[in-house]
Design brief:
AB_hydrolase_fold; 291 residues; alpha/beta; eight-stranded mixed beta sheet
């Protein structure tokens, strides 16, 4: 009973922080209108995208239950000053319709590649947050020529990259926990079919609770420079995160040799949700790494 109570508290805390983020994002969100938006016909699905600014392309992949606006609204105005920003809404999220197609990282990464093909973008820098980060990892593994530089924000390529209590909390999610939340409001505002809400949540709960591992060997083969950004208390297992950085060629004594092409940034005093609210910090890291 004690473990169940603790798990319930963790899950409630995650949802509460997510709700706060959703509530804050629109008030401080993007004021820009996309230069282009539409649907890319990909893998029997119409995937929604928005394009901002001009310059070298940067693809943005949002976190679970989020939209372009709620995840990236505060960052797009800054990033699009010097870049062509391509923001994608994954299956069932935002404007992209719900599909009974099973959710997995490989399929979603293939969808992202399809959007790039549709927009005639041969390669781009890619940044993903949380679920979007795992999709970004998968894209770099299965379509390495598509990814120039990779930014992974508070994410992992395997289930064991999360602290055990987080994985346990995912298993205890229920659709009713998302009722009457800003997440539902954001969904209803743009979803093509609002009646799919419950099916979407049920599908995402299964996805979140499914174990996955893209393989240490595959991560070690990534040739793109990678920037990992994490909060010091964001739910990621920091021992596993350190191992990930080592697989990517990092964790060296750079004073005795060249600086690794991949970088690791641990932001102090931040959790999983609050990290993405640090707009100036995230923007500075991205601009410096992607320049």
């Amino acid at each position: 009973m004690k473990n169940l109570f603790q798990t319930g508290n963790i899950l409630k805390s995650i949802l509460l922080l997510a709700i706060i983020m959703f509530a804050v994002a629109p008030s401080k969100g993007q004021q820009l209108k996309p230069a282009e938006s539409g649907y890319a016909p990909v893998n029997d699905l119409k995937v929604y995208y928005e394009v901002y600014g001009e310059g070298k392309p940067l693809v943005l992949l949002h976190g679970a239950f989020m939209t372009i606006e709620t995840n990236w609204g505060q960052l797009i105005p800054e990033l699009s000053k010097t870049r062509k920003v391509i923001a994608v809404e994954l299956q069932g999220h935002g404007h992209t319709p719900f599909s009974d197609r099973k959710l997995d990282q490989a399929t979603l990464a293939s969808d992202v590649e399809g959007v790039m093909k549709h927009l005639k973008v041969d390669s781009a820098d890619v940044a993903g947050y949380s679920m979007g980060g795992s999709i970004a990892y998968k894209l770099a593994i299965q379509s390495p020529k598509r990814v120039k530089k990779l930014v992974i924000i508070s994410s992992t390529y395997k289930s064991t990259g999360w602290r055990p209590e987080i994985a346990e909390a995912f298993k205890n999610m229920k659709p009713e926990m998302f009722a009457n939340t800003p997440m539902r409001t954001a969904y209803d505002a743009v979803a093509p079919d609002k009646t799919k809400w419950t099916k979407f949540i049920e599908q995402m709960i299964v996805f979140a609770g499914t174990t996955f591992d893209m393989g240490d060997a595959n991560i070690a083969k990534i040739t793109s420079p990678v920037l990992i950004i994490a909060g010091d208390n964001d739910g990621l297992d920091k021992i596993e995160l350190s191992k990930t950085y080592q697989l990517l060629g990092g964790d060296k004594f750079a004073d005795m040799g060249p600086m690794p092409k991949s970088h690791l940034a641990i932001v102090p005093g931040q959790g999983h949700v609050s990290l993405m609210m640090q707009t100036k910090t995230i923007s500075a890291y991205l601009n410096d790494f992607l320049k």
